[in-house]
Amino acid sequence: MLRLASAPVFAPRFRRVTYWWAGSRFLLLLWTLQAVPYFSRGSVIGDVMLYHTWADVMGHGSYPSGDEQWQYPPAAALVMLAPKVLAHLGIGYVNSFFFVALFADAFVFALLVGQADRISAESGREPHLSGVWAWVLGGLALGPIMYMRYDVIVTALAVGGLLWTVKATARRSAEAAEKRTWTVRGVLLGLGAMVKVWPVVLFVGVPGGRRGVRVLVSAVVGSLVICGLLAVSLPGAFSFLSHQSSRGIEVEAVYASPFMIASWFGYPIRTVHEDGNFQLAGPGTGIVASGAIITTLIGWGIVLWWRVRRFHTDRWTPGLMYDAGFTVLLVMVVTSRVLSPQYMIWLIGLAALCLAENGPGRRGTLMAVPARMVMCCTLVSQIEFPLLFHQILAHGFLGNAIVAGRNIVLLVATLLALRAMWSATTAEASEPDATPGSGASADPDAPREPESAARPEGSEQAEPAADRDVLEPAGASGTPGSTGGQSTGAAEA
Predict the structure, then answer these.
(1) Distances from the Cα of 266 to the Cαs of 262, 263, 270, 279, 382, in angstroms?
(2) What is the pLDDT of residues 342-397, one digit of tens each?
(3) How far apart are CA 186 and CA 473, in angstroms?
(4) Which of 307, 352, 381, 476 has the largest count of CB atoms under 10 Å?
């Protein structure tokens, strides 16, 4: 209880943002629980009802492989079955799902506050809260869909996989804490990928060397164990693969906007409900749907080429990991055949991590402008869905103009992100900085001595935290090759 009371979210300097989070989430809960009327709750709650149906099927011993709308990896079953446990308290499956989503939201908030607290302690400055505010206000802007889709749960696993940190203690050495940190992060990212695929793209930013190997091995082993157990207990675990291949262009996707605009001038396009979503049918849509997969692969190829040719292990920083993850996620979203409003939850989570690195005395994120552009896109989310969604389906002007505008902003943000990532690193590593405390001059995988042994008694200079010299970002000068302060995770194990 004392440990909980000492958590950063209860500290006076985080009180204002914590009150905002609590107040905004209370409003979201009132909307989702229908205690306060919402203008189109029925349109938003449909997916939760579908989760309930699938959970009942899985409760009888198999995946809903006969339903074409089942398009999710095996571990999604865990997310959909979890509310059935809480439902025994008498609040029903739907309300239980809302509270599971609320818990995931709170988990992300606590991680971001913890990250801000850690950065503040290391830099000696007041906490920089842009990342926390991005999560608080972005979630409010999205509205009840925040708790009426399971994407917030996947985002919690992804953010945890990038931030979770095990601290060194009297019984746990710094080296053991570091190893456990990267093992836990790998397991969380692997689990996230087995729940909804997209967290797999975040591995592009993990460090090289032994830490990167540990992350990948723990992710693969954890995923195989989870999927193996689910496949044995529930037949049809991989049926989602066949359902994904037949998807068309969804009405809100970036690729749909040109067709929607062309329909205003007589182009023969229509909206149909197939494969679990509203998608376009007409001349050229099948070719574009196939081309979307190719452009996704091209985008990933560019990022992977950056990783292979322009990434240097000795210049890795936590901020660079967030920037790379945010960039490849943007590529994935804008080239996808589907761009549902809940996808913005993924982007908000990664944008918050990037913006957290943009405070005074920090390395500064490469993604400041793209992240802010993404945050602007959240402002129209409730307008396009559910308020004007029927107009979008009917190819109306206002709804589709708003969606097209949002898609253009996301596309520009993606191009800016790719350009920033490519320009920020060079083909050859710069000369290591020999200044004291420089992360570039030290072996990033070298074991650290305990703090008590590293700092002479009576010294006024505070020694870095247990894994600070492991996760040290570039310096405050703002250039990619410089060195300085650092950001690691926010949670303790």
Answers:
(1) 7, 5, 11, 18, 28
(2) 999 999 999 999 999 887 766 678 999 999 999 999 999 999 999 999 999 999 99
(3) 20
(4) 352
**Torsion sign, CA atoms 224, 227, 232, 237:** negative
Q: CA-to-CA distance for 362 and 365, rounded, in angstroms?
A: 9
Domain boundaries along the sequence of the chain: 2-427
Separation of alpha carbons 128 and 117, rounded Å? 8
pLDDT of residue 274: 86
The pLDDT score that the predictor gives to residue 401 is 97
Q: Which amino acid is at 223?
A: S
- Within a 10 A sphere around the Cβ of 308, how many other Cβ atoms? 8
pLDDT of residue 310: 82
Kindly state the tokens that stand for 449: 């001595």
Least Cα distance to 387 among 143, 137, 150, 147 occurs for: 143
Q: Which residues contact 184 (CB under 8 A, 6 or more apart)?
A: 164, 166, 218, 493
C-alpha dist (Å) from residue 466 to 319, 357, 451, 454: 18, 20, 7, 11
User: Which residue bears the tokens 């309300």?
Assistant: 95
Residue 129 zone, left/alpha/beta (φ > 0; ψ -120 to 50; rest): alpha
Alpha helix ranges (H) inside 310-446: 318-334, 343-356, 368-378, 381-382, 389-393, 397-424
Which CA distances in Å does 246 have to 76, 274, 332, 337, 471? 20, 9, 18, 11, 43
